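SEQUENCE-TO-STRUCTURE ENTRY
===========================
Question of interest: how does this chain fold, as expressed in backbone structure tokens?
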Amino acid sequence: MMTELEQRQQQVIEEFSVFTDWMDKYEYLIELGKELEPMPDADKTDQNIIKGCQSQVWLTANFADGLVTFRADSDAIITKGIIGLLVKVLSDLPPKEIIDADLHFIDAIGLRENLSPTRSNGLVSMIKQIKMYALAFAS
């Protein structure tokens, strides 16, 4: 049986497979960023900034009923799309599932290979921060 996480990753892979051109995929990423729930300005603090990203990316996490819910924002549209994609896949899951997540969809949609080295490092930092929150809630 497919886990919730696996279903979400599969869904993302299918959504991205519609586009053959990377410009279209970037457009879709930007759309995903626009779908993010607005983050209150009060949460856009230095404490919530993900280190290692070239642009500013804020991430907060809440833990309730055994699930971790993420909120994020960025001042750069593509970066906002990337964090939006991660939030879409990893939000509202139990901490252990987030910690153990093998995010194969990233390579399956060709995201990593189509990012600049600095954005690619930013992606790694985003995933690391998401997993750090999950670890904190798991203990």
